[in-house]
Structure formats: structure tokens, C-alpha cells
Amino acid sequence: MTAIALALGASLSWGLGDFLGGLKSRTLHVLAVLAISQAVGFGAVVVWLGLSGDGFPGWTTMALAAAAGVGGCFGLAALYRGMAVGAMGIVAPVSAVSAAIPFTVGVVSGERPGVLQVAGIALALAGVALASREPVERGGGRAAGVGLALVAALGFGLYFVFLDRAAEESVPWAVASARGVSSVLAVAIAVVVGVSLRPGRAHLLPLLFVGLCDVGANVLFGLASTRGFLSVVSVLSSLYPVVTVALAALLLHERIARAQRLGVAGALVGAALITAG
Fold first, then answer.
1. CA separation for the pair 188, 206 (Å, rounded)
2. Of 221, 224, 273, 237, whose CA–CA distance to 96 is shortest?
3. Residue 161 and residue 175: Cα distance in Å, rounded?
4. Helix crossing, 2-24 with 258-276: angle to 10°?
């Protein structure tokens, strides 16, 4: 149950951060949002690393964490941009299909989730698929931003797999290394593209919150992955869209079709089954 609680905590933290990150990406360049929030999170996790007292885990762990950082950086960039051009209530749930990657890796590696957990995972992923489709009366086809959401899903899926492996040696080192790489990458790309990293005082507090929520979720996921099956905690951690969708509906008054709402509900029921298993 500890792993489940940590994974759900990660989902809540990611959901809050992603909502605000996507919202700020509608007024600021996505690279500015990404670079500043990543740097803030890196500063926070470095403090945690220093207080942890963990010794250097070795270069293999560092390489795995670096790979996680690259995947996470591109995943967040795609997610923020997708939520800037499309409905958060659609883009966020589709990105959660990322759970299929670590789930597959976990099962191939020998993990054997319970029957209820397998049913819950299948239902959660089916819900994501349903939420991604526009209804016929709106023209059918793929909803705006879904392509970017799928790119985000790939990045997040790789992040889950690599961070899980790195966290086996040291969670603080794994999270700090991943965040360090993603921060440097985001800032470097922003500088090369010519994006201003001075967004103005009005934007600093929200970006600070985005960075802290994201790194907090990284920490919680890293801890959860060392205490439970990767195939389970990755799916629970990927339920962050529920938070993002709820905030978008309450604060932005987004309206999505009935079938898409059923897809989001399916993800919630899937989470309950995973927890019950």
C-alpha cells in the first residue's frame, strides 16, 4: 500500500503542475516554461540530495538517470505545447498512455500483477483511448493536440523505465541527475532558439510552483518504484490527467463530449481496481 500511496501522490503532484504548466504555455513560449520550471526543480532536488547523505551510485546509474531526464524533458515539452493548442481535458489523458511502456517492460522482466490490477490497467488505458477521439458530430478524427500528447506519452514512458532502474541504487541521485540533465537540455535549447528566460515577475511564482510540483512527483515516483511493481506504480502515477481534467473543467470551463468523459471515468475506475488488487 505504501507504493500505491506514493504513486497516487505523484499523480496528484504531476496533475497540478501540468495544469499550470499547460496554462502558462498559452501566454509564454513553451521552452521558457520548461526551462525555468526545470531549473527551479533542480535546485530543490539538489538540496534534498545533499540532506540524504547517499553516496555516489556509479556511472551506470547516472547514465540511466540521464536517459530518464532526456525522455522527461521532451515529454513535458510536448505535453505543455499540446495543452496550449488543444483541450487539456483531452491532451492530458492521452499522454497517460505512457503507462503502457513501463507496464510492458515490467511484465517482460518477470513482474506478475494480480488479476484485478491487470483489469484495472487495461481499463485505464482503454479510457485514455476513448478520451482521445472527437465525436462524430464534431467531425470525428483526432482531437487537437493528440499527436503531441502521444509524443509526450513516449517521453514519459521512457522516463518511467529509466528512472525506475536508476532509483534502485539511489532515489535522490537518480532524481537529481535526471532533473539536472533535463534542466541543462531545456535551457540550452531555449538559448539556441532565442527564447527569453526573463518572463516577468507575474509569471515567476506560477513557474516556481510548476517546477516544485514536477520534481515532487519525480521524488514520489522514484520512491514508489523501489517499493512496488513498476507495472503498477507507473500506471497509477500516470493518472495525473484526472487532476488536470478536473481543474480545466472547474477553472477554464472546458467542455468535452460524453464519450470522452466516459474515457476519463474509465481511467478512474481502473485506478480503483489497481488499488484493490
1. 22
2. 237
3. 13
4. 150
